[in-house]
Structures are given as C-alpha cells and as structure tokens.
Amino acid sequence: MNVKTALILLGLALATIFALVCVLLTRGRAPRTCQHLPQQQGDTEDGQSLVFADLTPEEMAQVVRYLQGNLGVPLVDASRAKPSDNCVASVDLQVPAKAEVLRFLDGGGTRPPREALAVLYFGNQPDPNVTEYVVGPLPAPTYHRDVTVQKYGGKVPYHRRPVTGKEYMDINALIQRELKKAPRFLTACCESDGTDLVILTTAPRGFKSGDRTTWFVLFHNVAGTGYYLSPVGLEVLVEHGDLDISRWQLRKVFYNGRYFASPGDLEQEFVAGTLEVVRLKQPQADAGLGSMKPRRPPDSPGPLQFEPKGPRYTIRDNHIIFQDWSIAFGMNPNSGPRLFDIRYRGERIVYELSLQEALALYGSNCPGGMSTRYLDGSFGIGRFAYELVRGLDCPYTATYVDRHYLAESDTPRTNQNSLCIFEHDSALPLRRHFSDSQSFYYGGLRKTTLVIRAISTLINYDYIWDFMFHGSGAVEVRVYATGYISSSFLHGRGTDFGNRVGPHTLGTMHLHHMHYKVDLDVDGQLNSLETQDMEYELIKDPWSMQNTIERPYLRRRRLEREDEAAFPLNAPMPRYLSFTSPNPNKWGHSRSYRIQVISFAGKHLPTSSSMERSVSWGRYQLAVTQRKEEEPTSSSVYNQNDPWTPTVTFADFINNETITNKDLVAWISVGFLHVPHAEDVPNTVTVGNGVGFFLRPYNYFNEDPSVDSPDSVYFSSEQDSGVCGTNPLACLSPDAACAPRLPPFHFGGFLNL
C-alpha cells in the first residue's frame, strides 16, 4: 500500500469518527428549528375591515376623472392653479355612517357603498367658494352630491381655503422682487442678495374674517441643516387675498425691533445711517447651529430587537390581528392616523380612535412669532407623514406600510413605508411577583406591546404618533415632539419669551396641544359615565371609641349631562373616570373602561380671544358628548385661515344633553408647554416630551386577561428553572440563534418631495 492510499484511508477514518462523535453529542436532543410560526387567522378574514380602508391610488384617480367629466366647469391641476382657477384640492375616503357600518359588521346587512369625499376650490366663479362632494360608488363613480351645506350649515367662503404650494411659490416670488429694493441693507445685515434667504409662514393670516395677510419670517438657508435656528431679523407682511396675483402687496417690514412701510424705506434708513444693523456672517453648514451631522465615527451597534420565529401579528390589507387584538387602520391626509373597530377577544372596545388636530401656539416680541397659532390639520398631518427610517424611526424588522393621498394635485402620491407596525418588548414586566413567604415561587409576564406608528414632519417639528395595544386589554396612545424648534431674532427683551440658544437666536416659548376622538363602545354602544375618587372621613375608632381615625372611602358618581362631563384644561379631574356598560361582570360591577390622561398642557387661549372658538376643544382636557353623525370632527382645515368665524366650533357640541345609556364619545386633549433651551439645539429630544392617555379595562373582565398569555412564566423552588419545559425563558438560548437575515437598508423618502 503506497503513501497516497494510506492518507486517503486515514482521512476517511477521521471523517467517520467525527460523524460518530456528532451523533453521540446530539443524541436525545430535539432538533432545533427556526421555522416561522404559522400566520394568525383573524375573525374578519372576509375583508369586513375594508369598509374603513383608505382609498387606493386607482380609486382617487377615478374620482378625479369623474369630476373632470361631470361638473361642467374647467378644472386646473391644483399644483398649477391660480387663486382665480377651479381645482380639485383633495380626495379622501368618505367614512360611512356608523349605523350603516354596524348593520354590515354585526347585523349581516349589506356592505355600505364605497364613497370618496372630494374638496374643490372654485375660484373661477362669480361667488368663489370651497365645495365638498361625496362621490360614488367606487371604484366606478356614477354620482356626486354637494354636502357642504349639510356639513357646515352654509357655503365655505373662499378665503378659508388652506394655502397651496403654488400660492406659497407665488408669495416667495413677490418677496424676492421686493427684497431687491434693499440691496445694500441685505449685504450689510446678512451677506446676502436675498435669493439665499428662505421664508417661513405664520398663521393665522390677519385679524378678522376675510383677511389673507401673512407674516413671513426670513432665515439664512444653510444646505443640509435646519434653517429654523438662523433668523436674520427680517420679517415681511404680505397681503395675498386677491384672486389676481398681480395685486398682491408687501404691506410692512419688520427688522430688529422696528417696523417699516416697505423694503425701500428700510433701505433709505440704512443709507442714511439711522438704522441699527446687526451684521451676520453667512453660517457654514458644518458649523451651523442646526447641523445634525455626526461628530464622532460610528461605534459598536446597539441592541437589536427581532422575532426569532417571525412576527406574531398578521396584516391583511388595512387589518391587523395580534394575539387577542383586532384593529383596522388608516390615515386621513389632513388629521392623520385613524383606527376603527378595535376589538379584544372579539368584542368591540373602540369604534373609532383618531387624531383630530394639533395646535402650536407661540410667544415672541417679533410679529411672526407672536401671531403664530398653527393648526397642523390644515397643513396635512397625514399627508406629511413621510417614509420612516428603518432601524431608527421603527425597529429594523418592523412591517412597513405605504400610505397614499391626493392633495394639491390631480395625481395620487405615495408615501412609501410611512406607517410601521411592530411588536415591542419594553424590557419591563407587565406583571410579576417573587414569593418569599409560605411557598417560594416566581410568576410573571413580559410586557410586549403591538405598536402602530407614524411620524409627521410639519415644517420644523416632527410628531411621533404611537398607538399601543397591551396584553392586559389596555390601549395606550402617545405623541412625542422632536425636530427643530422655531425661533425669532433675539432683540430687546426677547428673553421674556424664551431662552437665548445662539448668538442671535431666541428659542421662543410655545405650547403643543393635540386633540383625539375616542368613540368607545364598551360592551355595546350604550354607555354611561362614572367617576370615582377618594375622600377622608373622620370616625371613632370602632375598637377604641375614645380615639378617632381618618378613613379613606370611595366616592362614586354617575354623570348625567354633557356639561358635567366637560372637564376644563388643567383643572382637577376625578382620578377614575370610566365608560360603563349596563351589564355587570361576574362580581356585580358594571363592565367598564377607564380613561387615564397623561398630560402637562400649557394654558389655553383666553376665551376672550377673537379666535378662541376655532380651538375651543382646547378648553377641556376631557369632554364626553353624545355621538352624532353630524359632529364627526372637532376641528376643520378651514379653521386655520378664518379662526374668527370657525367652520367647526367644538364648544357647540357640548349642550347639556343626557349621557346616560347613550352612544358616547370622549374627546381628549393632551399637550405640554415648551420653553426652548440650549439642549433643544440642534433638535428637541423625545425624552420628557411625550404625552397621551390610556384606555384601561376596569371590571370589564373577571380577572386580568393576560393570565391566558402563552408568554407567562412560573416556576417554584421545587422545580429546575433551567429546564425549557418548565420555564420558557430557558428556551431563549436556542431561539437566539434564529436571528433573521435583515433586508438591505433602503430609503426613498426624498423622492416624493
């Protein structure tokens, strides 16, 4: 036998020995598998949730084509339309009436017709106005009906329409022409010819109904960084209400604490040497206040969350199933995220949970800052919910969903990956107990939550909208504010209105208030409102009558009327407030869901203000009213530009009607006062800037429903907690080997701008 043959035989022998060792080492072990779990099957797999589904791009396009062919008037694409044109401003889902939907969902009735709500601006008419049409049935429309008077009690005046992108472009062109009248001043103050300055709108636009006069604040435009922190001290007032753009005028100029009739007057004072000028250098991108570029190279990656056997939730169209939860989701292009038909264990808890409005109200000693009361719904909370960054805005392995909208264009647009859904391990027990008395054991359950998230960028601010669903049957709603602060040029007593955060930058104080609609259906549509709180009573000690004791007791109250159920902002509110069913649980208590508000809102606008009624929802931290189909929203996109005669006035919803055994809606305000400080540069952080509310079961069940969770852990002192069959936590080691193959990172969020 030669050497070559011997080496071959030796190699075969070694391979055989290695294989035998592997067999012996793995004998008795269950084969490890990383197979994904089967998809959960929901109870609405026949597509019932589609009754709430947002319009598809094809449906939007069909509506536009129908309107173009059936209104009998010329329609210009809104992206090019002048104020004197007719155009389709927006198309969205017309949500069917609740009674129709429930007949379909619960009573076996026919599916409601699918319809769209189209908003049109009619500028090319003797009586310019805004008109709303319901168009249907989709996907092939054959009818339209004008619902404007039905909804608002009359026509919507044309001046109330939101400002379009085309209108802003025309305003900017006017400002640029006017700035050319002050060339030497601009060179001295800003090292600029005006073309590299950017304008920021304020709102509302004037002092009375019919006004369309807006202050615009000018900033240095620094590429790749936030211009909001670089004001140059110059602000201009533009009157742009005329249908003829050539008649628009620049009415006033503000600079460094002084007002001028025009840029020409400003230039004259500068040339005469009577104007105090603060000479600013052009900020550099990397050295500017607003730069977000990393200052250190990447370090080792942080923790990564993943599902070893795939997601434990299922998404089909607009419907999510997660453990005992069932949710239909969508996005209104104006008011933002909206959820419908939220069920737990097959029982509807909430019919509608939707964001209504977001208010940002500023203070400053500059005209732009002091007059700003942004109503973000008029800008488009849902429309400007852009693509989410995988691995930062949401977990890398989250499910990302596209949202579609049609606004200011005849062509539908898509915000790809703009809504994310994921299961989140909060690294906190949902419940636990370690027993060190009598018997020794440990029992607990991890707090894992389904999260539905969108993030809206509304000019400078980014709002994170979270809707969370817990294993205990609770719903949590949270909003976080981040992004850039808005600022004014620091002059005079500017620090009465905020803090200095840069050489000439005043971080201006402001408040953020958000409003939500919560249509709870607790064990049926007919609910009442009950409050509970604690009091002390002084009693004689029953076992020692010569002594006394302060005994706490529970004070229960059933609220009968809407006026009783309207709780003013920042006033004391009962600690327990619940929607109750007439039906009891096993222990004889009304099945209920409790509303728990987490907020530290600023002060509401005084009711003496001429524009307060447009935001009158902000008077109340919580108001409960009878649900009415004619009161679908607490605000309107038309309130921003005419807050003096609001199209929708929430305060009128509260008219002391009975709220006993009725279909009720909870309207919830949350918010916070923000006084910007040095640490808000470059961005406001989310830490401490989150508010929201809980909907928590209160005697709705007979026990905590999470006891049925398969994630529960229990082991005693007599058991081996390291055995996988005894303790599921002992199974994590092999599961950890099932790390997923992450998809390549991709971001297309800049493509749709």
TrEMBL record:
Residues 286-309 are annotated as: Disordered. One of its GO terms (cellular component) is plasma membrane. Its EC number is 1.4.3.-. Residues 75-143 form the Copper amine oxidase N2-terminal domain. Contains 1 topaquinone per subunit. GO terms for molecular function: copper ion binding; primary methylamine oxidase activity; quinone binding. The modification 2',4',5'-topaquinone is found at residue 461. GO terms for biological process: amine metabolic process. The keyword Disulfide bond applies. Residues 161-258 form the Copper amine oxidase N3-terminal domain. Its cofactor is Ca(2+); Cu cation. SUPFAM superfamilies: Amine oxidase catalytic domain, Amine oxidase N-terminal region. The keyword Repeat does not apply. It is an enzyme of class 1 (oxidoreductase). Belongs to the copper/topaquinone oxidase family. This is Amine oxidase. It comes from Pitta sordida (Hooded pitta). The lineage of its organism: Eukaryota, Metazoa, Chordata, Craniata, Vertebrata. The gene is Aoc3.
